[in-house]
């Protein structure tokens, strides 16, 4: 029986993933995201072999021999120059022998110029990724493997489908809604299987994230939020015309709250299933009450999780505001601050609303199945 259910689950997942892959192959290739500015750029990893340093009036100058370690120039040794100031920490790189760096190459008039771009940090990120995968596999075993698979799927849909379509002018609201619903279905079916628990969680999660997104969009219009409160958004606006930045606010809320709301909805649906399984004579209304009680217990911690996630990302900015002793009236009315506050509030509202929706849906579907 279990093998049959698992087989059906993976057939469903494979079919849905195939459709997504076909969409990404036949819709995305026609999108040219390369600008004239970046068309001539090429990046390489390299390692510092030798280093000479001397002091100047502005700081320090370094002459380094580096070996390119990947790409068509792998094995080539080139000389680069780097300047830094000892007391500056912002955009300040100090080279050391053995340090791995990223180089950028520009080709102009048949000549190639190579400069230092940044320190290579991808190995550290890869190490963290490997540790995460090992922890998931050791603790979760098969479920851990399924979790890794869902993380890969989520990243693929966002990076390969959602973001490119938004960049070329598709509605952020429509694209993000479609992407989020697809992610929700795939995650919950892979983790929970093809059953009433997953269906109830899908309905609850989908309702919660969409309500959160539209609430943020609606209140954002009332509050006259531009969606251009960050430096990144302003840079994007200078290079792209016609992009719906208020729609991006909606998109950000949906993606940011997706994980927490999915967790809450699946916990409630699974709890309702277990309660009914332990007491098959439990009536519909009683099952709803038990599910709501479970949801209330989860609500406090998960609501804090969402709010703290937004606060954590804004700590340097908040410290800057306190350091400059800005007035509360000015702070609360800044576009960026108002956007972050609205994002946290709307996401939390969506999470709370998903609780009764999931509880009712789970109770209804589980009673329809008539668990004995």
Folded structure, characterized:
This protein is an alpha+beta fold and 372 residues long. The chain has two domains: 238 residues, no CATH class; 83 residues, Beta Barrel (OB fold (Dihydrolipoamide Acetyltransferase, E2P)), CATH 2.40.50. The chain contains twelve helices and five strands. The protein has a five-stranded antiparallel sheet. A hairpin with an 8-residue loop joins strand 2 and strand 3. The longest helix is centred in the last third of the chain and has 35 residues. The two termini are 16 Å apart.
What would you say about this model in short?
The protein has two domains: 2-26 and 157-369, no CATH class; 38-120, OB fold (Dihydrolipoamide Acetyltransferase, E2P) (Beta Barrel). Helices cover 66% and strands 13% of the residues. It is built from twelve helices and five strands.
Largest sheet: 5 strands, antiparallel
Q: Number of DSSP strands?
A: 5
Flag low-confidence runs. Answer: 1-5
Count of the domains? 2
* Termini Cα gap: 16 Å
Which structural category do the helix and sheet elements fall into?
alpha+beta
Key structural traits:
OB fold (Dihydrolipoamide Acetyltransferase, E2P); alpha+beta; single chain; transmembrane helix; transmembrane; disordered N terminus; membrane; 372 residues; 13% strand; YibE_F; YibE/F family protein; 5-stranded antiparallel sheet; globular
List the helices and strands and how they pair.
Blueprint: H1 2-27, H2 36-39, E1 41-55, E2 60-68, E3 77-84, E4 100-108, E5 111-119, H3 122-140, H4 142-167, H5 172-192, H6 196-222, H7 231-239, H8 245-278, H9 284-313, H10 315-323, H11 328-332, H12 335-369
Antiparallel strand pairs: 1-2, 1-4, 2-3, 4-5
Helix pairs in contact: 1-4, 3-4, 4-5, 5-6, 5-8, 6-8, 6-12, 8-9, 8-12, 9-12
Pfam families: YibE_F
InterPro entries: YibE_F
Transmembrane segments: 10-28, 124-140, 147-167, 173-192, 199-219, 248-273, 306-329, 341-366
């Amino acid at each position: 029986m279990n093998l049959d259910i698992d087989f059906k689950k993976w057939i469903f997942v494979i079919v849905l993933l195939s459709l997504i892959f076909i969409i990404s192959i036949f819709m995305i290739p026609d999108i040219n995201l390369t600008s004239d500015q970046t068309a001539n750029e090429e990046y390489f990893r390299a390692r510092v072999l030798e280093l000479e340093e001397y002091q100047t009036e502005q700081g320090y100058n370094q002459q380094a021999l580096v070996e390119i370690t990947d790409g068509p120039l792998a094995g080539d040794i080139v000389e680069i120059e780097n300047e830094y100031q000892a007391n500056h920490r912002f955009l300040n790189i100090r080279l050391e022998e053995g340090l791995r760096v990223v180089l950028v190459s520009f080709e102009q008039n048949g000549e190639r110029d190579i400069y230092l771009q940044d320190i290579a940090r991808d190995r550290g990120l890869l190490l963290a990724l490997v540790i995460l995968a090992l922890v998931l596999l050791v603790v979760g075993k098969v479920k851990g493997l399924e979790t890794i698979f869902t993380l890969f799927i989520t990243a693929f849909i966002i990076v390969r489908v959602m973001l490119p379509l938004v960049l070329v002018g598709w509605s952020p609201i429509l694209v993000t809604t479609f992407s989020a619903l697809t992610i929700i279905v795939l995650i919950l079916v892979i983790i929970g299987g093809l059953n009433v628990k997953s269906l109830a969680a899908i309905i609850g999660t989908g309702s919660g994230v969409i309500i959160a997104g539209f609430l943020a969009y609606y209140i954002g219009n009332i509050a006259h939020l531009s969606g251009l409160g960050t430096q990144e958004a302003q840079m994007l606006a200078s290079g792209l015309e016609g992009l719906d930045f208020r729609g991006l606010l909606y998109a950000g809320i949906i993606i940011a709250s997706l994980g927490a709301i999915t967790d809450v909805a699946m916990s409630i649906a699974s709890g309702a299933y277990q309660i009914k399984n332990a007491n098959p004579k439990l009536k519909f209304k009683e099952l709803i009450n038990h599910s709501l009680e479970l949801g209330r217990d989860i609500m406090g911690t998960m609501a804090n999780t969402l709010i703290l996630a937004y606060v954590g990302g804004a700590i340097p900015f908040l410290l800057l505001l306190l350091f400059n002793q800005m007035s509360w009236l000015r702070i609360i009315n800044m576009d960026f601050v108002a956007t972050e506050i609205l994002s946290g509030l709307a996401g939390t509202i969506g999470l709370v609303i998903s609780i009764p929706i999931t509880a009712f849906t789970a109770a209804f579907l589980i009673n329809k199945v008539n668990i004995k």
